[in-house]
Design brief:
This protein is mainly α. The chain is built from nine helices and no strands. The chain folds into two domains: 1-47; 51-208, no CATH class. The longest helix is centred in the middle third of the chain and has 35 residues, at 95-129.
Amino acid sequence: MPILTEVSLLFALIMARIWIFDKMGWITVAATAIPISLAAFSWYKRGDNLKSLGVAPDDFSKDFKLIAATFLTLWAIVMTIAVFWNPIALSNPDLLYKFGKHAVLYFFWALLQQLWCNGYFVNRLNACLKNTTLTSLLTGLLFGIIHLPNPVLFTATFIGGALSAHFFQRNRNLYWLALGHALLAVSIHKFLPPLWHHNLRIGWDFWTWTP
C-alpha cells in the first residue's frame, strides 16, 4: 500500500473512532484496535525499530535544554492566561499535589500519543515529503484536527504537535516530548476555565459536556 494511502486510511479510522464509534461497547473496542493494529503492522512491515520510533534514543540528553525552554515558554503562556482568566484555580491548597499526581498519570497517555503522532505520522509523512518543516506542520495540523471541535485543544495540539514533530526529527526521543505534553495538558485542564475546553472533551462529547 502506498504510504500516503496508508496514512490517509489510518487517519480516517482514527476520526471514525472519535466521531462515529464512541461509547458503543465492543464496537468501540474494535474501532480502537483496528488503527492500532494497522500502525503496528506498518511498523513491522516497513522496518521500524525502537530507535526510529523514539523509544530507545541514542542520546537521551540531546536537545533537552531547547525542548525544556520551548515547553516552559508554552507553559508560562498557559499560566499567564490562568492568572487573568481563572485565578481561583491557583488558590487551591492541594494544587501542587493534585497537579503532580495527574501529571504523572497523564505522562503514560501522553507517551502513547507521542508514539502515534511522531513514531507513526512523522515517520510516514517525512518518507513521502522529504521536508522536515512541512512534515512538522502537517503532523501538527493532523494532531489538531483529531482534537476538534475543541478550540483550546486544537490550538494547543497544533502548536505542540508541530513542535514535537520538529524535535522528534532532530533527536528521536519521545520521553522529553511526552513530559512536556503531559505538563501542558494537565495545566490546561487544571488552570484554564473549564467552559473554554469542556474538560478536554473532543468529538461529540465536546458539544454534550455540561459543567
